[in-house]
Structures are given as structure tokens and as C-alpha cells.
Amino acid sequence: MGRTKRKRQKKKGSISRNVRDASPECIRNASWASSHGLLTANLDVYIFPETGRGLRCRRNIKTGTCLVSVPHHLLITVDKAVSHCLKRLLRGVENQLNHIQLLCLFLIYERCLGSDSYWYPYIAMLPHTFTIPPLLNEGEMSLLPSHLQDRADGMKVSVMEQYDDMQRKVSFCDQLIHLVTLKDFKWAWSVVNTRSVYFGDEKRCQGIASGSMALAPYLDILNHSATAEVEAKYSKLTKRYEIFTKTSYRKGEQVFISYGAHNNDTLLLEYGFILKHNPHSTFQMDEVLRGIAAGNVERKNAILKGLNLTCDLSCTVDGPSWKLMTALRIWNMSNSELVHWQTVLQGHVSDKNERLCTEQLTLHCINLLSTIHKAITTISTQPHSSLHSSCMAIQLEYKHIVQNTINKLQAVVL
């Protein structure tokens, strides 16, 4: 065999191996979507070292290029779920179910059809499990950062409430009652929560939204990047959901989309992963004021509420946020300073006030470091998993942020 032929076969084998690693289900989904009208900017499925499965461009892509265009008939919309054969089983109850419940029913019903389902190539590619709170057991929940526990518990409760509500409303239909188990509903809810797109004016709110939402086969192969700039919209003219890039890509690079300017807390809870070097990373310190004694508490709380300074008090790698420092300055105001509290908006109240804020926040951060170290030690003793890795990484990120905040505060004192 000649050298040229060997090189050609080696190159061909390398490409096919990457395609095979992407799983037959993923390739089948891409081929199926393409054969039913999906258009892409010369993208193919590829396994990347950092992110795993993603989409790679086969040529240079310019700013303004449409990356992916999904025809309306490939979108699993709420309207489609309502007009589905499920309507016969629901007997008008569909009007009493919210959009997430309807999409969940649709997914579960179609998954039960197996290869007989029109949507089989898409559904077969979907993950069998997720690392978000509704699907975590007690041991896995304990790995989550302590300040996220309430949010995580809230997600679990919300899913249970939606499931119970749906079961009550479809209790007249034995077929649906037996078809939709709690396990199946949690899976379907996770699919909708992590993969739905919105093409109306509605906004996502803790994973639950109404209005124009849909699942878009193929789009969920695209990975999230904090730096990706895209415009996603539904074109009433072409009847397609389209994603346009606002950045350029070179041949062979991975193409990304953005889920929004989320910190790693939100990414971990809502999507089950975190980003290394996330520019939106924060460490929440909403509880910082609780341990600090103060006078005129009622007046100060009213001011904080009026300025929206009762939540989202945080630090980043650059130190404490404006909201955090402003809240502390107001909380530490003397009676005379409180008369002219608006001066805080200029960033400084008095030297004494500033010293108190710096000392209190430094002490709080030192205590936080101790808590973070304990969490890291606990996680290190647990069995390894993707959730384990994410929880360890986010605690190390917290440590970096809090230590940087201490360093910034000490630099101010010096």
C-alpha cells in the first residue's frame, strides 16, 4: 500500500471515528432533521476535548451567517402537542394544563411509540438522565452548594406539584395515568427545561415559562458559551426558527450559542453543568447583613428595598459588587449619616463607615473560606461522577472569588 493511500485512509478513519463517537443516535438525528428541511451553515457533529459533542464548521463562517434554520414542522410546539392524537385522550382537559405539562405528555407519549414515532430520531438522541435537582437523590443533592439548596428543593417541589396536578386532571383516562409515571415526567420535564427555545416575548423564569415555547431537534447539539453572540428568532416570513451568529468562526472551530448571561450557579441548577472561566461567575452573599447589628433597622430596610439591594448581593473575581458594598454602607450608617443617605450613591459615606464595611466583609469572607474548605473536603470523599466534578469545580471557583475579594479589601485598607 502506497504512502499517499495510507495517509488518505488514516484521515478518513479519523473522521469516521469522531462521527461514530458522537453516537449513532446523534448522527441519525442530524441526518433525519436534514432530510426534513433543516438547513445549517456547513456544520457537522464532532467530539471536542473540552465540551464533548458539539457542532464544527467545515468552512469559515462570517458574522451574520445563519448557523441553523429549523422549519416550523420540525418544531415541537405547544400547539402541536395540543393538536396531537393526545387531544383525543385529553378530552378538553388540555386547556387546563400548562405548556410544560403538555410538552411533557407529548414527549412521553411519543417515546412510548419507539421507532414508530415520527420524532423517534430526535427522542432517541435525548439523554436518559440529567444532573439537575428534580432527578437527584438525597446523596447527590447534598453535593450542591449550601446556598443553592433552597432553590434546588424548590425545583423538586415544583416538578412534583406539576406532576400531581397533571395526574389529577387526567385521572379519568387510565391510559394516560399508566403511561405517565413520576420518573417519566421528571425526565420529560428535564428535557423541556434544558432544551426548550422561546420565540415569543416571554422570558424564562426559574425554568418555567408560558407562551411560545418549543423543542427544536438538532439545536440542542449546539453547546453554550458565555462569549457566544447570536440572534435567535422565529421568522414569520420563512416559518423557520433561525440562529444567526454575531461573531465569525474559522474552519474546524466549534460553533456555539448562548443560553444567556448566566453565572455557574444558574447553569448548574438549570442545565447540570458549569463553565470554566465563566465571566459571569459570582458568589452570592445575600445573608451578609443578617449577622451585623445595626440601628434604625426598619428605616434602613426600607431604603435597601427601595434601591433593590435586598438580594443579588455578590462578589466576583474583581471583588465585591456595587450592590453589596452599597448595602453594607447603608447598613452601617450612623443616625446623622442616615439623614442624607443619598450620598451613598456617590460611592462613599465616611471613612469610619468605609472601615466598618471593609472589616465586616473581610471577616465574613474568612468565615466563608472555612465553609468552602469543608465542602471541598466532603465532596472529595464522594464517588466520582459528572455532578461530583461540577460541584467540586464550582466550590474551587467560590474559593478563588472569595480569596480575591479578601485580597481586594485588604489592599484598600493598606
Structure write-up:
The chain folds into three domains: 15-73 and 216-263, SET domain (Beta-clip-like); 76-213, set domain protein methyltransferase, domain 1, CATH 3.90.1410; 283-413, Alpha-Beta Complex (set domain protein methyltransferase, domain 2), CATH 3.90.1420. Helices cover 48% and strands 13% of the residues. The protein contains 16 helices and 14 strands. It has helices at 3-21, 24-35, 78-83, 86-90, 99-113, 120-125, 138-141, 149-169, 174-179, 182-195, 264-271, 297-306, 322-331, 335-339, 351-380, 386-413; strands spanning 39-40, 43-48, 52-57, 66-71, 76-77, 196-198, 213-215, 223-224, 230-235, 240-245, 254-257, 283-284, 314-316, 319-320. The strands form four sheets. Strands 1-4-10-9 form a four-stranded antiparallel beta sheet, with no helix packed on it. A hairpin with a 4-residue loop joins strand 9 and strand 10. Helix 5 packs across helix 10 (182-195) and helix 15 (351-380) runs antiparallel to helix 16.
